[in-house]
């Protein structure tokens, strides 16, 4: 299995505040990783560090064997990182199709394929970005990351604020995406059980450090760990 | 606690059903077609556009005595189009766009005086000179806030004004460049006193440059500029080259403004410090406020309305016409603009419906 992402002893934060300490993990081709933890433990900061918008004080990040530690966001995106931000950040003055076309890069993921994956988006291809519902905006944000044809897809709380029925639809689509063409993915999520069902591996953060790594299938059965680090009640299982 | 070493690969898991799942989203033939269809639709001419350019072309027949005014409108329209490229599409505010107009005007004037009186060659020289200044000053507007950009662009224009004022041996200082003569366009059409050739020449240049801008702004390059304007970080993290695009569009806009300056110099056969004055940049903002930003016709329609308003008001009250222009600005910015735009949008939709278009 080819290694896509390799993070080694990464320390990063914002300004003078260090949020991440000695983070290290790797992710292989076609693998999906659930990044779990309570509020404020550094999950989004880790994603932001991978896209290159935090201040790094130590450590290295390699993508597909290339050291991207010194790259800015633009160069990292070109190197193969697709990012779905927590706030979605749809380009409001562009239509759905234009949102995809503006950033599309050559590869198997095209706007048409995104519309196959999310038919609702295809129906609304002529609508402006700010005319979409929350679920549609999230689909568009994911589609926009996919048409970059990335090696690594980063999703920051993709189900936040969405209705349960939309969440189910989205998770099903994400499972299909994760299993297509060797794309590696990291998904940040507070609702552990939802996401462990569709990912291969899991990593738990606490106070900016990695405190647990496991296969998702194993972790979902490990009620003590889920309760201890994430406060997931047994009853919720 | 199960703590693996920091760089231990995560455990593998079976990837059952990979092929089946991949098959459900397999790439269909012709997958790029929506993007191509989008670009084709954007490039397709709408009926209202034919009307607009048809009216502009036939205007000399209807208004033979207003050729000079229409020439001014065409030049101001090109100048406004140039500012819209950076303001409306890339979100770069500028209070110093007159710098490029002035450099273009002086370059065309000096070229005609010292090298060749061929208008097309002079126009190319004007565009090149302005684009060089645009390229060099573009690096000053890459960073900072809107306020920083306003000050930087204003500063560049002031520098150019003082340079032109001081370098009398080259620019003629306050007296300007005099004695400019321009050869017939394509060796066939002499510049006449009524301004007929001047207008048609300016209109032709405006049309060609408009076509190029229309093509560019409807392409993925134009879309990515608008993405940048909406959210620079998001666009950057999507692999859109921020600095490269901003430098390119700023240089391009400078070349367009230089062409407007070149036309002004050639059709009036005179260049003075007035082309670098602050009011040129300020008027331009007003034109775009009237016509709207982010659509290429905004500058053109704004130029028509602004020049007509100025012409009517200055004829009615020669001493106080600037008062009425100021009042127009205040009324427009204070809320009238939305009402005017809504009315305009409704009118455009009606016109488009008449000609079977989706929208004007």
Order of helices and strands of chain A: EEEHEEHEHHHHEHEHEEHH
Q: Any idea of the CATH topology of the domain at 1-80 and 200-237 in chain A? A: Rossmann fold
Structure class of chain B: mainly alpha
> What is the β-strand count of chain B?
0
Describe the 3D structure.
In chain A, the strands form 2 sheets. A 6-stranded mixed sheet of chain A has the order 6-7-8-3-9-10, with helices on both faces. The model of chain A has no long low-confidence stretch (mean pLDDT 87). Chain A is of the alpha/beta class and 237 residues long. In chain A, strand 9 and strand 10 (209-215) form a beta hairpin. Chain A is built from 10 helices and 10 strands. Chain A has helices at 43-51, 73-79, 96-101, 111-117, 119-123, 134-146, 164-178, 192-196, 216-219, 223-230, and strands at residues 3-14, 17-28, 32-36, 55-63, 66-67, 81-84, 152-156, 184-188, 201-206, 209-215. Chain A has a domain at 1-80 and 200-237: P-loop containing nucleotide triphosphate hydrolases (Rossmann fold, 3-Layer(aba) Sandwich). In chain B, helix 4 (67-87) packs antiparallel against helix 12 (242-268). The longest helix of chain B is centred in the C-terminal third of the chain and has 34 residues, at 321-354. Chain B has a domain at 49-277. Chain B has helices at 18-24, 33-43, 47-62, 67-87, 98-114, 119-138, 146-166, 168-171, 196-217, 220-230, 232-236, 242-268, 278-291, 296-316, 321-354. Chains A and B meet through strand 1, strand 2, helix 2, helix 3 and helix 4 of A and helix 1, helix 2, helix 10 and helix 11 of B.
């Amino acid at each position: 299995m080819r290694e896509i992402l390799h993070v080694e002893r990464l320390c990063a934060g914002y300004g003078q505040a260090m949020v991440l300490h000695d983070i290290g993990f790797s992710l292989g081709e076609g693998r999906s990783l659930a990044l779990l933890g309570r509020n404020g433990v550094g999950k989004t900061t880790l994603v932001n560090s991978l896209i290159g918008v935090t201040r790094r004080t130590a450590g290295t990040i390699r993508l597909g064997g290339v050291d991207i530690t010194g790259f800015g966001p633009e160069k990292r995106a070109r190197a193969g990182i697709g990012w779905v931000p927590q706030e979605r950040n749809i380009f409001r003055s562009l239509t759905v199709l234009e949102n995809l076309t503006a950033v599309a890069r050559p590869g198997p993921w095209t706007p048409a394929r995104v519309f196959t994956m999310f038919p609702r988006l295809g129906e609304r291809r002529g609508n402006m970005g700010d005319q979409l519902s929350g679920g549609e905006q999230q689909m568009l944000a994911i589609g926009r990351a996919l048409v970059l044809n990335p090696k690594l897809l980063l999703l920051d709380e993709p189900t936040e604020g969405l209705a349960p029925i939309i969440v189910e639809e989205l998770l099903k689509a994400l499972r299909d995406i994760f299993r297509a063409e060797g794309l590696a993915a990291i998904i940040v999520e507070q609702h552990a059980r939802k996401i462990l069902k569709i990912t291969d591996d899991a990593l738990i953060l606490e106070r900016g450090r990695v405190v647990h790594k496991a296969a998702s299938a194993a972790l979902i059965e490990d009620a003590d760990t889920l309760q201890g680090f994430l406060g997931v009640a047994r009853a919720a299982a | 606690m199960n703590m693996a070493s920091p760089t231990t690969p995560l455990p593998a898991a079976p990837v059952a059903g990979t092929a089946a799942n991949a098959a459900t989203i397999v790439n269909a033939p012709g997958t790029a077609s929506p993007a191509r269809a989008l670009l084709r639709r954007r490039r397709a001419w709408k009926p209202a556009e034919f009307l607009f350019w048809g009216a502009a072309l036939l205007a000399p027949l209807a208004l033979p005595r207003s050729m000079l005014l229409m020439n001014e409108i065409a030049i101001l329209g090109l100048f406004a189009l140039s500012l819209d490229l950076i303001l409306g599409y890339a979100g770069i505010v500028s209070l110093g766009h007159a710098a490029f107009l002035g450099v273009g005007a002086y370059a065309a004037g000096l070229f005609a005086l010292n090298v060749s009186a061929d208008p097309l060659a002079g126009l190319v020289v004007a565009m090149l000179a302005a684009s060089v200044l645009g390229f060099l000053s573009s690096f000053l507007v890459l960073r900072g806030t809107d306020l920083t950009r306003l000050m930087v662009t204003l500063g560049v224009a002031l520098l150019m004004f003082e340079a032109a004022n001081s370098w009398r041996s080259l620019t003629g200082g306050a007296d300007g460049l005099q004695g400019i003569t321009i050869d017939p366009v394509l060796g066939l059409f002499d510049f006449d006193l009524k301004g007929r050739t001047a207008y048609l020449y300016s209109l032709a240049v405006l049309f060609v440059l408009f076509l190029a801008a229309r093509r560019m702004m409807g392409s993925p390059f134009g879309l990515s500029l608008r993405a940048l304007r909406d959210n620079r970080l998001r666009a950057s993290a999507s692999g859109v080259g921020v600095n490269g695009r901003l430098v390119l569009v700023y240089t391009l806009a400078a070349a367009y403004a230089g062409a407007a300056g070149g036309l002004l110099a050639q059709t009036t056969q005179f260049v003075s410090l007035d082309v670098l004055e602050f009011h040129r940049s300020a008027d331009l903002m007003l034109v775009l406020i009237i016509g709207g930003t982010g659509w290429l016709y905004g500058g053109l329609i704004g130029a028509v309305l602004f020049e007509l308003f100025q012409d009517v008001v200055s004829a009615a009250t020669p001493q106080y016409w600037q008062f009425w222009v100021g009042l127009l600005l205040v009324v427009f910015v204070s809320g009238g603009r939305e009402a005017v735009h809504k009315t305009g949008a409704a009118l455009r939709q009606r016109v488009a419906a008449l000609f079977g278009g989706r929208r004007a």
